[in-house]
Specification:
single chain; mainly alpha; 10 helices; globular
Length: 217
């Protein structure tokens, strides 16, 4: 099993390097703005929307999703290399681990980017991309939950937190393999912990709602 550990580490590392390309900070550079110095201070899509507007936010969405997908694809091929296709069960199990390892690395890279002083975003979009790659049905269910919560409350953070909290239970309920459940618990805790300041503002009633644009100050 030594080669499995090596491939996990490799997939995590490559995923981390891909995830470290924080899209909101890259897009912000074209506008001469570091979004971490404005609005909520978060290097993510929502703060980009409030600070720079819709087009930059759209570019961030595309970039964050793509790097999560790419990290999963790389993890897939790292684990597929050298496996015996005559053993479909083992092949499926190991390739799933590769997808999750690469995707987890991308999420960690987004949150703590190597290229931007380890100060990144909260990883929601990248996490969503990884979930779609690893478990598409669950990903679509979580997207539905997110959209309903945001539509009812206009709090993007609450939608993200709610979907994250549901994810591990949904994974267990749908009978997914242990590695998926471990992944679900890990990323759910990560998303919730990264939203600590949002949770505080939600409790105090000071959280910004969708559509409120702070602008550059």
């Amino acid at each position: 099993m030594g080669w499995v550990v090596i491939k996990v580490v490799l997939a995590l590392l490559v995923g981390y390097l891909l995830g470290s390309a924080n899209t909101s900070l890259i897009v912000g550079k074209f506008y001469g703005v570091d979004v971490r110095k404005h609005g909520s201070g978060n290097a993510g899509m929502t703060n980009t929307l409030r600070t720079l507007g819709k087009l930059p936010a759209l570019l961030v969405i595309i970039g964050d999703l793509l790097k999560g997908i790419l990290a999963c694809v790389v993890g897939y091929y790292i684990f597929k290399a050298g496996l015996n296709a005559a053993e479909p069960d083992g092949l499926k199990e190991h390739i799933a681990l590769g997808v999750l390892a690469g995707g987890t690395g991308a999420v960690l890279g987004h949150n703590w980017p190597l290229y931007f002083g380890f100060k990144g975003g909260k990883g929601v979009l990248t996490t969503f991309a990884v979930i779609l790659m690893a478990a598409p049905i669950q990903g679509l269910i979580l997207l539905g939950i997110f959209l309903v919560v945001v539509a009812l409350t206009r709090y993007v953070s609450l939608g993200s937190i709610t979907a994250a909290a549901v994810f591990p239970f949904l994974t267990a309920f749908m009978g997914k393999e242990p590695e998926y459940i471990v992944f679900a618990v890990f990323v759910a805790l990560l998303v919730i912990l990264r939203h600590g300041s949002n949770i505080t503002r939600l409790i105090k009633g000071t959280e910004n709602k969708l559509g409120h644009k702070k602008g550059i100050v």
